[in-house]
Design brief:
This protein is mainly beta. Helices cover about 0% and strands about 30% of the residues. It is globular. It binds calcium ion (2 copies).
Length: about 140
């Protein structure tokens, strides 16, 4: 689930409209309403939070298959309003490539301390990640 206009607090600092992605493991939950705040904290699952103000992480999400053929299923997450260096709103797509355990992760950790890749848009205003889709296996 994507909440691209949420205001997460990476490093304890509020980033307006940075966006949040929630992945919940619903198998042990009862029917009814769930507050997503608890995902990755008190509810098994993962919260991935945007790290740049206004980047809109979670605008688009797709299962990426095992694109890197390393045995774990990937996830593609778009943040179309991400500023890549001086390229305002070039956008980025985050591709995870390891099995993430329950917890809260910051988008900038993917490809650094957590396995995966960061694809960034080529030019100002490209908005890479406004749409993503997984193809193949
Ligand atoms: Ca907001
Ligand atoms: Ca931006």
């Amino acid at each position: 689930m994507g909440a691209p206009e949420s205001d997460p607090r990476p490093q304890g600092q509020t980033q307006t409209d940075a966006g949040t992605v929630y992945l919940a493991d619903a198998k042990d939950l009862d029917d009814g309403g769930v507050d997503v705040d608890g995902i990755g904290v008190t509810i098994p699952g993962i919260q991935l939070i945007g790290t740049q103000e206004g980047e809109a992480l979670g605008y688009a999400i797709a299962a990426g298959g095992d694109n890197r053929a390393d045995g774990s299923k990937d996830l593609l997450i778009g943040a179309p309003l991400y500023d890549a260096d001086l390229r305002t709103d070039a956008g980025r797509v985050i591709q995870t490539s390891q099995v993430l355990t329950t917890g809260v992760y910051e988008a900038s950790e993917i490809g650094a301390t957590v396995g995966g890749m960061q694809w960034t848009g080529a030019a100002v205003g490209d908005q890479l990640g406004e749409a993503v889709a997984g193809v193949g296996t």
